[in-house]
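Hey everyone, long-time lurker, first post.

I ran two proteins through the pipeline my lab uses and got sequence/structure pairs for each. Pasting them in order. The first:
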Amino acid sequence: MADMSATSAVAVADFPWLRQLFGANFHQDWAEDDDDAQHVVREYLRGFPADYLSTIIEEIDRVLSLHLDEPTLAKVITFGFGSSYGPEPSEKSYTAWLEEIRSEAGGEMEGRGRTGVGPA
């Protein structure tokens, strides 16, 4: 059984977009669909309108503002948000990965103003 104690610092239900990103896109067989994590993130963000991208950025900012240590943040992303992927510690931290996703969302957001539908 998964160690959920680390996620008690984060009410994961308050982060529906991050749960969707990590749980639905980085499921246990995600690498069979696309083995490039950065591409998976780009594909997830590509079709969203600016207001949804803004919400994703806000969720990332809220998680980062908790100043969780790396082991706790890793548990939140894997056990709380349901990700079966995490960056190699020798390459980047979970904090750096979230910051990259935030930057990617910001880049996608530039120039968008339309609305649309996203995960509930």
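...and the second, right after it:
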Amino acid sequence: MTTLAPERLREAERTFVPRILVFSTNNISDPGIDLAGSAHMTYSPGVVVISLPCTSGIRPSWILHAIKGGFDGVFIASDGDECAYLPDCSTRASRIVAQAQELLVKGGHQSARLKMAAICSVCAEPFTRHIQQFGDALWFIFGDIRHGYAWVFPKSDHLSVGIAALHPKHGELQAGLARVAARYGVALEDAQLRGHPIPIYLRREPIATARALLVGDAAGLADPFTGEGIRLAIKSGRLAAQAILSGHPEQYPALIHQDIGVCHTFGLGLAWLFYHFPRLCFALGAPNPFITRAFADMLADRADYPLIILQIVGSLPIYLLTEGIAALAGWLGGSERREKVRSLVYTGAGK
């Protein structure tokens, strides 16, 4: 994997104005949004508001269409428990959000691009705070970068912007980074780019000598799927200390291969599959709570890639069968029965 990123970008160089579609309600949240404007509160000028009589009238397909159409996020300013039309409006709205987030994930979009909160007629400050959070979010961009991804991280006084890909062609990273920067309003004209390959441990290079043990990036111990290195730096540091304290530092390469190297082999295979077929992997993996929980355990160093692959292979039939039964239950008995089927299976699996 190779990465490319500009050196420190000042916050002043960020001109990214997020385009946010807001669904509000005529009687409850509209006055709160109007109050934010009349009080001269600051939020993105890229906000577009559509007013409806009731939050439950929103269709999940509208949200997916908005994201595909170029909006960076969708915010539902719901009535909460104050809806004048339906006593269960908030429950219905929660179901709409859940369905819309599933559509977003299946379409290769982040579910976090949709948010909902109850906004009352005097809730000007909460509204502006929710809108500002879209601009402060961490953005991972998949699908637009061949065999890789890009990121935009806001920090206290600058932006972290970059791109990474498996075996990129000459100039491909530069062109991809320019596209991402243009889309998110990041000025790169005066920024100096820095790129380098991310080392991946393949047991080809020596990681120990008679007087030194290499750990972390120096040993090629970056994650083959994400390129992240802090977790493996800590883990290899512990293994190095273990080998030294045992009086057998020569055993360090074997410990690395046993605890990290074997997992790297499986991780490389999974990375190849994901970056070559990202939309398929998003559609089948991201909504699957068994898989998302396994990845969370891996990032916390509670699981490794062989276990994740077992989770993928083992849970996929269960997930597809559950979703099929849930869809049938929803068709026959409504959304409550559909969600009941899902909760029975997914309870304890992260969903």
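Reply from user beta_strand_b:
Welcome! Quick read of the second one: Residues 2-11+148-197 form one domain. The chain is about 45% helix and 15% strand.
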